[in-house]
Amino acid sequence: MTKIFLNEYYFGYGIPYMILRLSAGPLILIMGINQYTNGNTKAGIGYAGFMIFFGVYYMLKPFIVLLYLKSWYNNFDVEVSIQADKLLLQKGKIKSEVDYSEIDKAHKRKAYYKLSLSSKQELYLPTKNLETSELKILENLIL
């Protein structure tokens, strides 16, 4: 799940967010170091220290999230059955059906499918666990 989280964090929200998340931390860090070396007032040096701290934080943010909020990104051992009109999810004796009308957005990624539901939940379905007929159904769902 960590690979999926990192892939979604950096590349899942479009090119502007990708550029921002990859370059903002190092740029803020460089600006902070520059301000620190060229600063001649206590306020300027204090602000430079804040910029250095924030630049390092922004670069490490996804790893901090994974470290401290790991329970938000747990894998569930759920059996998924993709049918022509709905998704069937089963964990033990608990069964749940997701009608395709409840899916707001469906995205195909390199190694998984991301399904955003109307209830603000997201399902990540790795392609290696799906059969070819299920992949075709998901492919039609994206179109």
How is this structure best summarized?
Keywords: Membrane, Transmembrane, Transmembrane helix. The chain starts with a helix and ends with a helix. The mean pLDDT is 87.
Mean residue pLDDT: 87
Share of β-strand residues: 15-25%
Helix content: 40-55%
The profile of the biggest β sheet is: 3 strands, antiparallel
Structural class: alpha+beta
Overall number of structural domains:
2
Uncertain segments are: none
Integer-rounded radius of gyration? 21 Å
Report, as a whole number of angstroms, the end-to-end distance: 26 Å
Compute the number of helices: 4
What spatial order of strands do you see in the largest sheet? 1-2-3
Order of helices and strands: HHHEEEEEEH
- Overall 3D form: elongated
The total beta strand count reads 6
SSE topology sketch:
Elements: H1 2-11, H2 15-38, H3 42-68, E1 79-82, E2 86-91, E3 94-99, E4 103-108, E5 112-117, E6 122-126, H4 132-142
Antiparallel strand pairs: 1-2, 2-3, 4-5, 5-6
Helix pairs in contact: 2-3
